[in-house]
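Hey Z.,

So I finally got round to the EPU thing we talked about over coffee. Here's the setup:
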Amino acid sequence: MDKLMVEGGHPLHGEVQIGGAKNSAVALIPAALLADSPVTIDNLPNISDVEVLAELVEHIGGRVNHNGDAMTIDPRQVMPMPLPNGRVKQMRASYYMMGAMLGRFKKASIGLPGGCNLGPRPIDQHIKGFEALGAVVTNEQGSIYLRANELVGAKIYLDVVSVGATINIMLAAVKAKGKTIIENAAKEPEIIDVATLLSSMGADIKGAGTDVIRIEGKEKLKGCAHSIIPDRIEAGTYIIAAACMGSDVAVQNVIPDHLESLIAKLDEMGVDVDSDDDAVYVKGSNNRLKGVDIKTLVHPGFPTDLQQPVTSLLAKAQGTSIITDTIYNARFKHIDELRRMGADIKVEGRSAMVNGGKRLEGARVKASDLRAGAALVIAGLMADGVTEITGVHHIDRGYESLEEKLKGLGAKLWREKMTEEEQEQLKSS
Ligand code: EPU
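And the result:
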């Protein structure tokens, strides 16, 4: 087990290349199971969530070939077997195997998914969608069983706007008989990306990216090639790091439109930020950044996944900022750790009150989840001295080559093996 050491105070400058979107990749790999010939996906991020999904696909008979950042999935020999609990529990997005297996085999059996602990993360809307399509869903000893004689298109209104439910229902509905309409659908760019792959496979999907998606089911879907969109959250993380410590940073291979809500907030704070077709430029950091209030919302609002990283920037800005997470009410486990580093932040209900402008000091901190890890790395870049971050496996789930990319920008960070005593302390904390 490693810990990540970050020596603060080094200005960032230069270019960083953003990889493919994690939250697309984890849906596109299961989507490939719906084809009757191989699917090649490229611009895949090199992160552990992708590896775990590839292992899941292989476990049920799929063939997976890696070639650089491309993966070819041959789904022809896949069997409708129960999915192994261990790997399923390692990540949230294993729930996409439900929609994909249900679409292909009309049945699936899978343990309850794990992933970041951000408070309650029910999957009732996924289940409601599957049931509307004709599946019988039961929960037996911690595993979910889905069975249908046939899947028939239906009109489904989501009570909660959910990325996962929207995609999962799409995965099953592309193979259902007749028309499915998903109302109050999520509009995140990753949903459009999944719809693009499914359409290349021969699916008929209209309206992805709006709140009404119409799907005409098909009996057969074929293999194809697809390139994943850039990861807007990885990009946002580097943009925020550059706003904290940058002197001149270009964040390359991004779709700036996907980052509008972040760029608007940075502008309001006084960060010098600019963009062109596929890059965002952060011109410089200064010590007179203004605190702002931020509320996370569904796309195109401010993404909850950047709430934690941006809190570290708000800790640097002058004045009081209030950041409210309307998507996850307990996504605040980074706050205690930031306080350990000297930040003045209080959590009340769904909001964190940041009294900015305090100098941060390196400390021993723990990443409780993926984006909490990103927030602590950013705080470490700003802090005096060295910050020791444990729980690095969370960061590895979603950030490809984090150290190399930051080192390329001039940061100083490295991994060290944890002693047995430190590992024990981590387990019991
Ligand atoms: N919700 C329900 N019922 C459901 C589904 C969701 O009540 O059946 C609620 C959730 O509890 C939450 C809200 O609806 O309060 C939104 O959840 P959503 O389903 O959209 O989240 P998700 O699909 O589980 C994805 C990303 C998350 C990201 C959210 C919101 C993946 C694999 N995960 O999760 O990404 O925070 O959408 O944008 O796509 C991350 O990358 O760090 C991450 C956690």
